[in-house]
Amino acid sequence: MRRHDVVVVGAGLAGQRAALAALEAKQDVAIVTKLHPLRSHSGAAQGGINAAIGKEDSVDTHIYDTVKGSDYLGDQDAIEFFCTEAGATVIEAEHFGTIFSRAPDGTLARRPFGGAAFPRTIYAADRTGLALLQGLYEQLGTASPTIYEEWDLTSVVVRDGRCQGIVAFDRRRGTFEEIAAKSVVLATGPAGRVYGRTTNAHTCTGDGIAAAYRAGAALKDMEFVQFHPTALLESSILITEGARGEGGILKNANGERFMVRYAPHVQDLASRDVVSRAIVTEVREGRGFPGSYVHLELMHLGKERIESRLQEICDFCRTFAGVDPVVEPIPIMPAQHYMMGGIGTNLRGETNVPGLFAAGEAACVSIHGANRLGGNSLLETLVFGKQAGIAAAKHAGTAPAPEVQQSDVDAEETRVGVMASRTVGEEPQHLRMAMQATMDLKVGVFRRPEELGEALTEIRALKARYDHVRIVDTSKSYNLNLTDALETGNMLDLAETIVAGAIARTESRGAHSRLDFPKRDDATWMRHTLASKGRDGPVLSYAPVAYTRWEPKERVY
Amino acid sequence: MAATTVPIPFEVYRFDPAKDKAPRYDRVTLDLAPHTPVLTALLKIRTNTDPSLTLRYSCRSAICGSCAMVINSKSRLACQTQVGAEFAKHGKIVVEPMRNQPVVRDLVVDQQPFWNNYRKIEPHLKLDPTQPMPVGKENPMTPAEVERFKETPRCIACAACYSACPAVEADPAFPGPMALAKLYRFVVDPRDKDTKNRLVRIQPDGLWLCLRCHLCTEACPKDVQPSERIRDLKELAIAAAGTSEAGSRHAVAFKENIGEAGVLNEFKLVRQTYGTMEMLKQVPQGMKIARKKPELIKKPHPIEGVEEVKAIYRALDTESEDR
Asked: Mind telling me how many Å the CA of B310 is from chain A's nearest CA?
């Protein structure tokens, strides 16, 4: 049996940082990942990473901005820890070898970002995620963990009340394999692909979140889904907030800078939920362009600045939208971008299942609460990836020998074997597309109660159809059709938790905007949603928000 | 916004070594808007007609490096290649797996050789133990120092360059364009303290096997310009480690030769590259050449405009000092 002290699932920034921390604690560490580490979606992060290192700035201001940005749903103890670690985390990344953009005096360059009082976002042109991923991967390479590459996580094994390992599908050989582990860290990223209009990669299918859910872990705040204001119209490819940080402005079809009306003080650099609602409102009230979109203008910044600071964006616009941002506006609309929710953890990455840890976008600590600020997610991957790695290593130091039984592997083989043996059945990609259509249409920026109700019915109907899903590809190696089926099943479970949470939460807070309950309701709803898997879908319960110093106030930008 | 669609014929390479005796090409015609990426077209095939088609893909925005393949004979990213332009040029779109890496199935190749070469250049900062990193502070780096990386930080390790490289195909000892561009990235990093050793080691480790054909630069979807960075490495390697290899001696001899006469002296070039002993071994070959093309082994006269050539050399020397 394969056996390791610590198994980290996912090799993006959070997973790699967790693995590195566990290796530093002298544990035997393995990484299981469905993509080569350098292909992780962390690499797609553009804008930057926050740390209050400027002379005018302070850690307290960063904490306050994050608490306010979260619409007071973030846990303040976790946010304090998070912001306090920021400076050292960014310096560490620089020491790892990350190539950041620099100010003329040779220090780390910073740019303004939405919801932040000062320029606090450290960046590497508009490819900060890639720069961090390269630096961290280079460091990890010197520590040489075992890497099981292109393996899909299919289940987390919990026995005797603790996590004992995982079962995964080796794509290359086409076999289910067991890996026993004293500690398992899930850093598998988000499930953005439950939506069709999403900036997320095709591979962001929430595999780890779903496996944790099935294994008894509680998912936290799943209804809080961030829609990024500026995604390219057709492809939903992300246009970084850094574009507005550099001075880009939004205009409607009347040529009006409409953000002036929604956020008089900071205008285009208001928090993401605010800007996304403003854009959707403009379009809904008839001030969008034909085809339902608005413009992001960069032209006034000049060719030199656009091409040096926003190089990738220029390429994206030219290649994927046929638009040159140096001479013309970029057509944009909001698209799903980030999940504030995820596997519930504390600030050491511990879940409610002993031996099971989570970090990064797959987890919910919660520091983002109801709305994440730009530049805080890259920071989260490194800060809490490290914490989860430390805690996992510590747990492994005292945990008894783990065991994954043959029956655990057999169960997965049977589950998939049934799908492969059908001669008629549902094509997984078709179910996936139907789910995405429902989520795009009915669980978006604004939420109506009747549409949420329909969405729940539709997702449950798709789950029933999924019971008849069929794998038609009969090859063993790189059977992507099988991966499709696994991923679609994972996402249907998670879509259900998102919709159920959204139906129950009868208020508007951060990214969750109910048309029938337009106000925030602190008396009833200043609490986290917890979704646990029941026999017939998610069972919801609630947990208090951790407070330290910041009293809830109305959120104005 | 919906653009009009046109029928576009595809020929897609299919091969499962476990089942098929030989590869085949599946022919399918799709109605697509001209700006549709090839990746989207392949995913349409998976969704609508054949879910068994297998390939690597993830971000669909040219940043993860997963979907490099050969499209109409060129190594590139499927997500970044639009069907309209390809159809206009070739009348069809032929999709094949990358080259220089064994096919695992359909469009999926075994990238181990590529990653092994990447590992070989020791892709991580190497520090001088007597000069630890500044405590609690970043290493200062001026914007000018950041400029020295050129476009190498943009590399997404997609291996399109590796697939396009004839030197990789000809000689497994050649590390390939990506690994060398990555090496350049560490050589110019002011934080790295192993610059000289890196430059010394890479000379026998394949630097001079680059043929300067520029196909890597042409293939690169992120404008990393591996070919140009390999050229820079050659210059830096000679400066740091002298002409320790036949490749570097050849480069220097070539330059001197032209500088003296404006035309190559093959006799001298061979001697300077390989040394007198080695040159003597090549005498039989030289005799053969002499019989066929006697002018090649004669000492050439300086060309008419040799003074102008010398002026160009002087100008270039001054320029390189400025850099």
From this structure: 37
Q: Rounded to an integer, what distance in angstroms lies between the CA atom of residue B105 and that of residue A231?
A: 34
Q: Is position A272 annotated as part of the catalytic site?
A: yes
pLDDT classification of B323: cutoffs 50, 70, 90 = very low
Q: Are A359 and A344 in contact (CB under 8 A)?
A: no
Residue of A nearest to B147 (CA): A101
* B246 pLDDT tier (thresholds 50, 70, 90): confident
Residue B32 pairs in a beta bridge with B6
Q: Which of the four pLDDT bands, split at 50, 70 and 90, describes residue B190?
A: very high
Element (H, E) at B132: none
Q: Is residue B203 within 8 Å of B237, Cβ to Cβ?
A: yes
Residue of B nearest to A238 (CA): B61
Q: Which residues of B touch A106 (CB under 8 A)?
A: 140-142, 145
* Domain interval for residue A477: 407-521
Between B317 and A354, where is the model more confident? A354
Q: Name beta bridge partners: A232.
A: A332
| A-chain residues near B18 (CB < 8 A) | 475-477
B259 or B222: which leads in pLDDT = B222
Q: The dihedral of CA A488, A494, A500, A502: what is its sign? A: negative
Catalytic residue among A111, A244, A272, A432: A272
ipTM of the complex model: 0.95
Question: Measuring CA to CA, which residue among A171, A129, A42, A13 is closest to residue A487?
Answer: A171
Closest chain B CA to residue A192: B59
Tell me how many domains chain A contains. Answer: 2
- Taking all residues of chain A, what is their mean pLDDT, rounded to a whole number? 97
Q: Do residue A411 and residue A517 come from a single domain? A: yes
**Alpha-carbon distance A243 to nearest alpha carbon in chain B (angstroms):** 17
Q: How near does any CA of chain B get to the CA of A203, in Å?
A: 5
Question: How many contacts (CB atoms, under 8 Å) link A and B?
Answer: 155
Q: What is the mean pLDDT of chain B?
A: 92
Q: Is the pTM of this model over 0.90?
A: yes
Mutation target vs B (from A16, A20, A34, A38; most B CBs, 10 A cutoff): A38
CB-CB neighbors (< 8 A) of A96 in chain B? 125
Q: Does any domain span residue A379?
A: no
A329, A416: one domain: no
A416 domain residue, yes or no: yes
Q: Does A95 touch chain B (CB under 8 A)?
A: yes
CA distance A173 to A346: 37
CB contacts, 8 Å: B105 with chain A: 475, 477-478
B3 to chain A, minimum CA–CA distance in Å? 11
The HSE-up count of residue A307 (CA atoms within 13 Å, CB side) is: 8
β-strand pairing of A249-251 with A110-111: unpaired
Inter-residue contact B221 to B98 (CB < 8 Å): no
**B47 close to A429: Cβ distance less than 8 angstroms:** yes
Average pLDDT over residues B163-182: 96
Q: Domains in chain B and their CATH numbers?
A: 6-108 (3.10.20.30), 112-241 (1.10.1060.10), 246-322 (no CATH)
Burial of B314 (0-12, 13-18, 19+ CB in 10 A): exposed
- Name the residue with tokens 């692909």: A193
Percentages helix, strand, coil for chain A (3-state, rounded to 5) are 40, 20, 40
Q: Quick check: bond before A366 cis, omega within 30?
A: yes
Say if the Cβ atoms of B64 and A479 lie within 8 Å.
Answer: no
- Residue of chain B nearest A471, judged by CA positions: B51
| Nearest-angstrom CA–CA distance, A487 and A469 | 12
For residue range A246-279, what is the model confidence (pLDDT) as tens digits? 999 999 999 999 999 999 999 999 999 999 999 9
Which distant-in-sequence residues (6+ apart) come within 8 Å of B30 by Cβ? B7, B8, B10, B41, B44, B45
